Amino acid sequence: PGRALLPLGKHQELRERAMDKVIATSWTTDSEDVDLGTEDLLARVRSVLDGEDMCVLGTLEGCGSRLTPCFFGALRDLGLVFVSSRGSRHVRNMEADRRCSALVVIPPAGDGSRLVSLQVIGRVCEPRGRRRLAALRAFAGRAASHLPAAASGISKLMDKRVFVLEPDRIEFLDTGLSRESIVLRRGWQDMER
Asked: I need a labelling partner for 149 at 20 to 30 A (CA). Which of 30, 111, 166, 180 fits?
């Protein structure tokens, strides 16, 4: 006698309801070889996200992963906004499994001796109401120079799917600071406690 399985959509709905009951509290790092505090590291992460608009989105598919180049918009809380056509493969993957990541790389300048990259790892959610509009504005403001629909404002994006990658962990590499990635972790607190 097996346990009755809920349809995938029902699992997603229950997981999203559970996530509505937690809030992000703070970021921490266990990096000991960098003379910067967590706030300074977060400022550097924000600077990278503010300066870039393209990433490689990693979603899970079957037994492996799918990598998709995507434009993104950054939110103040370090969430990344993705706006996609309803039938795209990465949208189907995010519907099936909310875990994903985004890799942002700043191309080396000058002599190429400094490498800066971020890997943002977490789960995606689909914002609703005002959160959806704020996410669309963040995306449109960023992608306007590349995408004609975004250049026209959010009205041309309303029929698209909107996802926000809510980071649990960020792996930050800046070879000007350290030869190893600096891992930032986000703390979560249950609002019902």
From this structure: 166
